[in-house]
């Protein structure tokens, strides 16, 4: 699965993804697979690349050998990482899978304020922002079928506003 951050906080060089979409990028797949083979790594991993605007080349930025914030996008995209890792660890065969392109993940409580800053500063248009929510979308935390989880996220808002500067 290859995914691209569309929104992040802070906007210019984010520490956290707030909106992600699965994309088709064979070049990054190749870079990632080559890197993992070179270090003989087996397991769950997130590899981040940044596009260098000066050279138009992707540069290796970060390697996370753990689950990452938006790993749950994989379930909707057809690559359920936790389940596949479980099957692998109990010795069952896991066939290669390819993520559905265009699946979106959002953490609304951080995406909305970060995107409003982008809109006010002219980095994104309001219509463009609203349109980004169409299609296959999974929310990171908010789930009205799990009110406790949703309530906990809402209760954390004042803390997040204080810590993140929104």
Question: What does the model show?
Answer:
It is built from 7 helices and 6 strands; from the N terminus they run E-E-H-E-E-H-H-E-H-H-E-H-H. The protein has 166 residues and is α+β, with helices and mostly antiparallel strands. It has a domain at 2-24 and 98-164. The strands form 2 sheets. The protein has a 4-stranded mixed sheet with strand order 1-2-5-6. Strands 3-4 form a two-stranded antiparallel sheet. The longest helix is centred in the N-terminal third of the chain and has 13 residues, at 26-38.
Quick summary of this structure?
With 166 residues, the protein is of the alpha+beta class.
How are the secondary structure elements laid out?
Blueprint: E1 2-9, E2 16-23, H1 26-38, E3 46-52, E4 57-64, H2 73-77, H3 81-89, E5 104-106, H4 108-120, H5 126-131, E6 137-139, H6 147-155, H7 157-164
Parallel strand pairs: 5-6
Antiparallel strand pairs: 1-2, 2-5, 3-4
Taking the sheet with the most strands, its summary is: 4 strands, mixed
Percent of residues in helices: 25-40%
Task: Determine Rg (CA atoms, Å).
Answer: 17 Å
Give the helix tally.
7
Oligomer status: single chain
- What is the straight-line distance between the termini? 31 Å
User: Can you write the helix and strand succession as a string?
Assistant: EEHEEHHEHHEHH
Principal-axes geometry comes out as: globular
Structural features:
166 residues; alpha+beta; 4-stranded mixed beta sheet; two-stranded antiparallel sheet; 6 strands
